């Protein structure tokens, strides 16, 4: 029976190097993620995972469903966060 071979997953460095292969020398390539998982969003916001799932169920919260996964696009999320912050500040009279 052949031995199992474990291949390392691609790192951020690997993705940058692969993307940079088609970029002229001296140019920097940024590989910012276009979307994040609910878990990543909970970590970024500093909230619990159950609270994050509660949040993604709210009307107006930007999500994309891929099968059973819930994906949060980063740019619409940033826009939603800014709008919610402004709304909260107006309600408090700031």
Question: How is this structure best described in words?
Answer:
The model has no long low-confidence stretch (mean pLDDT 80). Helix 2 crosses helix 3. This protein has 94 residues and is α+β, with helices and mostly antiparallel strands. It has a three-stranded antiparallel sheet. The protein has helices spanning 12-20, 38-45, 49-56, 74-91, and strands spanning 35-37, 64-66, 69-73. The protein starts with 11 loop residues before the first helix and ends with a helix. It is built from four helices and three strands, in the order H-E-H-H-E-E-H. Helix content is 46%, strand content 12%. It is extended, with a radius of gyration of 19 Å.
Concise synopsis of the structure shown:
The chain is α+β, with helices and mostly antiparallel strands and 94 residues long. The protein has 4 helices and 3 strands. Helix content is 46%, strand content 12%.
What labels describe this entry?
single chain, 94 residues, alpha+beta, three-stranded antiparallel beta sheet, 4 helices, 3 strands, 46% helix, extended
């Amino acid at each position: 029976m052949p031995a199992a071979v474990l291949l390392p997953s691609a790192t951020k460095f690997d993705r940058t190097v692969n993307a940079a292969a088609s970029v002229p020398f001296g140019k920097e390539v940024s590989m910012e993620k276009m979307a994040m998982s609910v878990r990543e969003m909970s970590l970024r916001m500093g909230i619990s995972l159950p609270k994050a799932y509660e949040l993604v169920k709210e009307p107006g919260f930007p999500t994309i469903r891929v099968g059973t996964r819930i994906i949060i696009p980063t740019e619409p999320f940033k826009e939603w966060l800014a709008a919610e912050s402004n709304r909260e500040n107006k309600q408090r009279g700031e």
